[in-house]
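Q: What would this complex look like in 3D?
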Amino acid sequence: MHELTVVLQRVTETGPMWLIPLFPFVGAVINGLFGKLLQDRVGKSAVHTIAIGVMCGAALLSVIFCIKLAALPEGARNLHSLAFPMVSIGAARFDMAFAMDPLSATMALIITIVGTLIHIYSVGYMHEEPAYWRFFCYLNLFVFSMLLLVLGDNFIVMFFGWEGVGLCSYLLIGFWYTDVAKARAGMKAFIVNRIGDFGFVTGVLFLFWGLGGSWLPSGQYVKDLAPKGNYVQARVVEEPAEPAAERAPAAQEETARVYVGPTLTFSELRNQLALSRADGERPVARLLSQDKTVWGVPLIFLVCLGLFIGACGKSAQIPLYVWLPDAMAGPTPVSALIHAATMVTAGVYMVARLNFLFALSPGAMTVVAGVGALTALFAATMGFFQYDIKRVLAYSTVSQLGFMFIGVGTGAYWAGAFHLLTHACFKACLFLGSGSVIHGMHFLEHKKHAARAGHAEGEHPAADPRLAPDPYDPQDMRNMGGLRKLMPATHWTYLIACITIAGFFPLAAFFSKDEILYRAFVNGNTLIPGPLIWLTGIVAAGGTAFYMFRSYFMTFWFREPTAEMREHVHESPTSMTGVLWVLALASITIGAILGWPHHALLERWMEPVTAIARVQFHDKPFGIELGFSLFSILVAAVGTYTAYYFYKDAARAQERKQALPASFLHKLLYRKYYVDELYEATVLRGTIALSRGLAWFDLHVIDFLVDGTARLGVAASFLGGQIDKWIVDGAVNGLAEAIIAGGRQLRRIQTGRINNYATVVAIGAVALIVIAFLGQ
Amino acid sequence: MNGLFNVGLTHFLVLGAIVFALGVLTVSTRRNAVSILMGVELVLNAANINYVAFAHYVSGGVSGQVFAVFIIVLAAAEAAIALAIVLAIFREFRTINADETSTLKE
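A: Here is my prediction, written as structure tokens for the whole assembly.
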């Protein structure tokens, strides 16, 4: 019997943590069922009071549970709370249960606090909207799903949330569903996400399958149709056993029962992967990463790849990023909440949550980091020459998500989560700032309606949208310019967020992005060399500074505001600017507080989560680390100066204007490398052609068969009808007629003459006597 | 010839059979309801003769006579009811011809 040790994740049962997601759910139900009534009878304030109230409740509870979590000793920081058991089939048990460890606590805080802020912002932004209640119902439903996703203690609850946020994203992108383009954008998001979800489910099923059954040394898989887990005894240790290390005799031996076998619960999965023999080998981890293979590929790689495809769909990575820019069709608070701060980070969260799985497979980590780096670079370049302010931010989000994947892919899980946190603050600030700008430019929409009413035919869309803007588009940055004087609060907060995202010291993204890039450089976990990933990342970071400041200068400087703008554009209401200031303040401070280099606060906080993930970094001395930081600030400065040089005012833009649209590169970038067109030509056309082919097959072959069957049926039933009519009915009717005829004959006997009867009686009596006499 | 005049059980039985036959014949052939009733009386009295004869010659005692008395009483009651019915039929149909009052046939 091998002696097993385990770095145990202790689970602490706690009070009703399920209340956290329940709050927004209740809000969604109330607004969903009675929202219209409330809005008509009481007014819009009733609707948003409920929505914001439940959000505050959820945020407060999250804070309480987070404090509770922090009070526990480090190894036991995992709160668990069972709402109700759901299904139990064989070894698979799914409970509606919630778990909170430092990672999900951080996520829950981001979701509830940023969510609350965006709810407050929406009050100002959506005040003209007739379907106000519907908006808040969807928002609450989204927060509910997102909390399920991050707080779920097993894959099933997480998947509920995973699908729920996809649904809410679809509903909110297509919020103005009367506009066909927006409805299409919603569908696109949903369908692309479905592709990712397929990968996610595949990964989970592979994992569950892989932990059950058994494999012979020859590689043959022996099916175990009713796989059952079992418990093993293991000694609890604090540090993972090193292969050659001498084991010091512990003062008190603590043992724990550890579940081994197929499971969908994160803590059970983690604990069995943490099991270790005396020689440092981890049997379950070895089982997944070496012993079990499918076509020569380690099972763990397939599991992680499947899960990562899911993450790609949700977090908009190459090749499934195409939905996110189109998702900007939704209302701007939605873009801030769902498509920047929370939902799109679900993939990053999932990889960080399953760090103990991904760390087992260098191949999978390479894929994650590589895809992240490529996405960071390509999305940044795609954002270079966009004119729609929200599209710039969308590509920026895709790019920043790429950075997060570099972090979690190279093993720097806490850095990925850190960037997730800072990004939630500054990107929400940017999106809400752009929303404030669009709110200010709203008069263009009114102008458009007026123009349409004036002369119906007067619409001449420009031949090339790169050359001339649609004069009525409130999101086109070429229609803006000089807004800094008209919208001072928006201007300042947008500027702060821009400096943050560009990565200048000492604002938030400086710490998080630099940590990621440094870790990428020194990591020893990916198959491709770290410096290559670092190079890609640093170029993308420079690009980020360029396109963000380009959007800043185009919006707030560039030219003097026109008289028309002076008349119409005004600063947004306090509910909006207040939120902007809060987020800007967070963008400034949060990085330095949580991420001051060398054993940062957040790193220590996250340590229990990644305790058993074996990752290694070739640490460099602090001076070199500092050098990296200075270099990245330099790169950001170059990017910023380029943007300043070209977009500060209209005069310089003139020469650029002559040169740029003609160049092939500009067109290529503006058209986003023609990826949409490529998908259109291959996937979309292919699918449509396939469906046409199938339709033909259906019409001519399947229908022929079906019709043939139907005709046969008709013939058979005709025959049956004839048999019924002539033979069955004939028998029945014949019998009846025979009886009637017999009765008619028998009626003759009854003459009604008493004499006849008496005669018959007498004859009968005599006959009986004679018979009786003869019988003797 | 001696046997013929030496009256015994056989004589009574033959008489009873003759009366019975006459009664049945009357019931079978007569159309008048009152005649039919008279035929029934003949049948009943044929039975009476048999009772009394058997009582006298075979079993002894008076039980046969008692039966005969009962039958006479019964016949009287029957005749009363039957005549009442005949009267009712006459009132309804203005006839007591049994052939013409065959409405129960249908």
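A: To summarize the key features: Residues 426 and 587 of chain A are 5 Å apart (CA to CA). Chain A touches chain B at residues 750-756, 758-759, 762 (CB under 8 Å).
Q: Very helpful, thank you.
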